[in-house]
Amino acid sequence: METGGRAEITWRAANRAVTIDVLDEGPGLTTTSNLFVPFFTTKSDGSGIGLVLSRQIAEGHGGVLTLENRGDRQGCVARLVLPLGSSAGAGAA
């Protein structure tokens, strides 16, 4: 990582859903208003579709993807919540 920090992945299952958190110790988010705007990027070599596409895939499976600053220290947490035992995203009518 650019900052020399760590990344950690945790998961838990509760309330018929699995929650996966990816936590880092990077610089954090300066603004959250453009995170999921298609083709918006702050990287010189970025395309701006990674987070948008990831969120669309999560929602297509009945889930939710969020990205926010950590509350316990510097860095971010990306959280993916997906339903368990559901046919969401499987073409059910």
Describe this structure in words.
By secondary structure, the protein is mainly beta. The chain has a single domain, classed as Histidine kinase-like ATPase, C-terminal domain (Heat Shock Protein 90). The chain contains one helix and four strands. A four-stranded antiparallel sheet has the order 1-2-4-3. The radius of gyration is 15 Å and the shape is flat.
Low-confidence stretches: 89-93
Fold-level CATH name: Heat Shock Protein 90
This entry's quaternary arrangement is single chain
Inertia-based shape: flat
CATH level 1 name? Alpha Beta
User: Percent of residues in helical segments?
Assistant: 10-25%
Distance between the first and last residues' Cα:
44 Å
Q: Which structural class should the secondary elements be placed in?
A: mainly beta
Strand order of the largest sheet: 1-2-4-3
Supply the key terms.
93 residues, mainly beta, Heat Shock Protein 90, four-stranded antiparallel sheet, 4 strands, flat, disordered C terminus
In short:
This protein has one helix at residues 50-60; strands spanning 7-14, 17-24, 64-69, 76-83. A hairpin with a 2-residue loop joins strand 1 (7-14) and strand 2. Mean pLDDT is 82; it is low at 89-93.
